[in-house]
Amino acid sequence: MEKAVFLVLLFLVNACAKPPMLSTAKDPADAFRECHQFTEDKSYLKANECLELLKSRYPGTPEAIRAELEMADNDFRQNDYLVAVEAYKNFARLHPGYPEIDYVYYRTGQAYLKESPSAIDRDQQYLDDAIHYFSLALNQPESLYRGVAREKWNEARRRLAARSFYIGRFYSRSGEYLSAIPRFEEVITKYPELGFDEPALYAMGRAYLELGEREKAGEVARLFAEHFPESRYRKKLVRSLD
């Protein structure tokens, strides 16, 4: 009797057990569909385990290449942005002629941007990398990602402009005008048309005035007159010069 019960339980366990990954896959396409279903179900760890198995079983196939990219995407979806960055960069290195290489560049930039804190007083070491990869995406002819890549490229540049302006203001408030001026110049020359031109010009002009450099402050006022004649910042600076 006990043996019969054991055999029934064993049968039930075996009946409920799922077959090993890719055990029923007939070809690479079939295998990719099975792995991709894990991604669709948001089971990203299982998806990457399955995709890794696909790569070893069907090396060099288009599906194995797609598996590499999907694994990087799944790292991104799990917020493992620096892991995703390395996976995307490795993919681009191995497959520079991939038809959707613009997507790979865009996602690399996006991962770097996501890893960068939004607070401007925090370390922004990855923003230059983000800008670089968004630029690569923008340079791809007829890319479907040009619009979003340009938007994120400007977002990364705007964050750097805000940080430089923040540091310049900090130096100015501390009376360190010689250190402040290069920061304001950086905002104007490297990150124009991002909303910081006028306040940065004004702050630079004020810093020159505080240093007694009225001639250089006047040059800043002339730049204002040329590029932003109606600016309230220009009027404030001109009043300071009178």
Provide an overview of this structure.
Among the domains are: 20-77; 79-163, Tetratricopeptide repeat domain (Serine Threonine Protein Phosphatase 5, Tetratricopeptide repeat, Alpha Horseshoe). 74% of the residues lie in helices and 0% in strands. It has helices spanning 2-16, 28-40, 44-57, 62-77, 81-94, 101-115, 127-138, 146-173, 177-190, 197-210, 214-227, 232-241. The termini are far apart. Mean pLDDT is 91; it is low at 4-16.
Nutshell version of this structure?
It contains twelve helices and no strands. It is mainly alpha-helical.
Helical fraction: over 70%
**CATH class wording of the domain at 79-163:** Mainly Alpha
Q: Which architecture of the domain at 79-163 does the CATH hierarchy give at level 2? A: Alpha Horseshoe
Q: Can you tell me the CATH superfamily of the domain at 79-163? A: Tetratricopeptide repeat domain
* Fraction in beta strands: under 5%
Entry keywords:
mainly alpha; Serine Threonine Protein Phosphatase 5, Tetratricopeptide repeat
What is the strand and helix layout of this fold?
Blueprint: H1 2-16, H2 28-40, H3 44-57, H4 62-77, H5 81-94, H6 101-115, H7 127-138, H8 146-173, H9 177-190, H10 197-210, H11 214-227, H12 232-241
Helix pairs in contact: 2-3, 2-4, 3-4, 4-5, 5-6, 6-7, 6-8, 7-8, 8-9, 9-10, 10-11, 10-12, 11-12
